[in-house]
Write a structure and sequence with these properties.
Layout: E1 8-11, H1 13-22, H2 35-38, E2 45-50, H3 53-59, H4 65-75, E3 81-85, H5 98-110, E4 113-118, H6 126-137, E5 141-147, H7 156-168, E6 173-178, H8 185-198, E7 203-207, H9 214-223, E8 228-231, H10 245-251, H11 263-279, H12 294-297, H13 301-313, H14 320-333, H15 343-356, H16 366-372, H17 385-394, H18 405-419, H19 429-437, H20 439-448
Length: 451
Amino acid sequence: MESSKTVGITEVVLRDGIQSLLATRVPLRDLVSILPTLDKVGYWSLETWGGATYDSCIRYLNEDPWERLRTFNSLLKNTPQQMLIRGQNLVGYKHYSNRVVSNFLEKSAENGIEIFRTFDALNDFENIDFTIREVKRIGKHAQGTIAYTTSPVHDLNTWLDLAKKIEDAGADSLAIKDMAGLLRPFDAYELVKNLKSTLSIPIHMQTHATTGMSTATNMKAIEAGIDNIDTSISSLSMTYGHTATETMLAIFENEEREINLDLSALEEVSIFFKEIRDKYSEFEGNLKGVDSSMLVKQVPGGMLSNLESQLRANKQEDKIDLVKDEIPRVRKDFGYPPLVTPASQIVGAQALLNIMSSRRYENLSNESLNLILGKYGKLPGEIEPDLLRRAESIGVDGDSYDENELDIMATELKDLCKSNGLPDLSEKIEMLLTYIMFPNIALPFFKELDI
């Protein structure tokens, strides 16, 4: 497919920018005033929701994620809202039934999402096929995604095969999601060139700055004909985050391919988020420049800042380098899953367990067992034989989900509300979805809400 002269920009500051640099700790009240200015910039889309946002709203911010979305929607008149979902995992950490997925997508669209970027942590197409088709059914933009990684079991054909399946499922566009900044500039050029010659849908890309390559990678992808890239406003960019929006704008000024954004509006946005970054600096990770070790360890930016936060909270920050070293070993043993949610959390948590235990895999988390035993989908490579045997001997309880999950959980929530003196929240589908995805923290959250 031919690319247009103009390169579209998806601004990620409201979601992935805040998630990668500030552990998703910025409340809605601190973002509302900048939305009209963001809406004037001329972005292709604004990524506002999904990823860890939903979880953080109810876990840390005491904020209804649906209200956040509705507020964004009321103030963004010109720019489509985009969200990130994990296929059958949605914004939770396990597979949900098709009915739950359908209800979540319908409500997300109803409340303001226009573009759904859907990926699977293992690049198992079966886990995103239904989501893509459902987004098309409800009349919104379905963006199927490659979770880019490198390993002995991934090569160019891995991505071309997956991309073709995504296009054939009816996706409106394809995204390359490079969560750990592993996509090297010349590899990006080759990947995009090959994708452009085999697909007829537009191609988008998100790459993180952790390894220092993101700006060059974006540049080579644009040279190869990519249609759209993700960037983050300069004052909340780089390190664990993304290339600055203004940097890409400057690079392609007066060039054959161009980026058309309102520079004065961008300056206002940048000043605003500099203050936000200062205000929430306690949540920022320790990385001050580039971490080239990630080319080996492959740990995504958001995962690193959260790992550091967890270790700090437990006064174990001296263990961070040991955990970083253990992560690639666990990943290899697990069959080389890409390190993206939820696989990144599972591998990271297991690496942490291994470091804290007297011997490796002395304690296997339930999530690790589920991953090894295929509950999240097919792993790309072979699992370490002794580890697989051990996991099979322990086993896991039940299937990933029950097809009647929606009704079962609605009854559960109804009873819970009654016994806690709350109105029946099971009748509000958004509240029911919150309970289904986060049953352990939903009740305390509901009690704090002004219902």
